[in-house]
């Protein structure tokens, strides 16, 4: 299994149990599905279940304590961050880009840093264009200076998260 972690915080963002692909050259798009959660519920992914491929045993109706949640958010323990307006996101993005580039250079990935400098602006424009439709998620550490996952829904209401490729570190388990 491969776990994708935030290059800045080290928080888990998602794993390869989910279908993912390169999107718009600078993102990784991770496709999820809606499921339900309860506070006391044990997460089946901890026991090797594949929530993106298997049907949930629960439905949305019937249990008032069950809440709908995107499976990627649930299994990776992502935390919802406050929504950004365009101006606030611009400020966040500038500082975040500097941190990602510095971390890439520090880890000897200068080529990746240069690639990110070229691709980052297109990703920024994509996020700004869709900012009103997006929900923002941090890793479990809730560090808003770290990388974000950008949640949206496709035309079939299938949830997906976008992550900047350059901000992810692969860790094999």
UniProtKB/TrEMBL annotation:
Q: Which residues form the TCTP domain?
A: 1-173
Q: Which GO terms describe its molecular function?
A: calcium ion binding
Please state which protein family the record places this protein in: Belongs to the TCTP family.
Record-linked PANTHER family:
TRANSLATIONALLY CONTROLLED TUMOR PROTEIN-RELATED, TRANSLATIONALLY-CONTROLLED TUMOR PROTEIN
Question: Which PROSITE patterns does this UniProt record tie to the protein?
Answer: TCTP_3
Signal peptide interval: none
* Region (Disordered) location: 45-64
The taxonomic lineage of its organism, from the top, reads:
Eukaryota, Metazoa, Chordata, Tunicata, Ascidiacea
For this entry, the protein name equals TCTP domain-containing protein
Q: Which domain of life is it from?
A: Eukaryota
Mark the transmembrane ranges: none
- Please name the InterPro entries in this protein's record: Mss4-like_sf, Mss4/transl-control_tumour, TCTP, Translational_control_tumour_p
From which organism does this entry originate?
Answer: Ciona savignyi
A Gene Ontology term for the protein's cellular component: cytoplasm
């Amino acid at each position: 299994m491969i776990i994708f972690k935030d290059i800045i915080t080290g928080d888990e963002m998602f794993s390869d149990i989910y279908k993912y692909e390169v999107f718009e050259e600078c993102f990784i798009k991770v496709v999820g599905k809606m499921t339900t959660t309860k506070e006391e519920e044990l997460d089946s992914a901890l026991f090797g279940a594949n929530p993106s491929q298997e049907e949930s045993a629960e439905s949305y109706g019937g249990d008032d304590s069950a809440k709908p949640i995107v499976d990627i958010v649930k299994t990776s323990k992502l935390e919802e961050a406050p929504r950004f307006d365009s101006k606030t996101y611009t400020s966040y993005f500038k500082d975040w880009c500097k941190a990602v580039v510095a971390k890439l250079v520090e880890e000897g990935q200068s080529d990746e840093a240069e690639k990110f400098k070229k691709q980052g602006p297109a990703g920024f424009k994509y996020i700004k264009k869709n900012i009103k439709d997006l929900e923002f998620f941090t890793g479990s550490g809730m560090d808003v200076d770290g990388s974000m996952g950008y949640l949206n829904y496709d035309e079939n209401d299938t949830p997906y998260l976008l992550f900047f490729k350059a901000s992810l570190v692969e860790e094999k388990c």
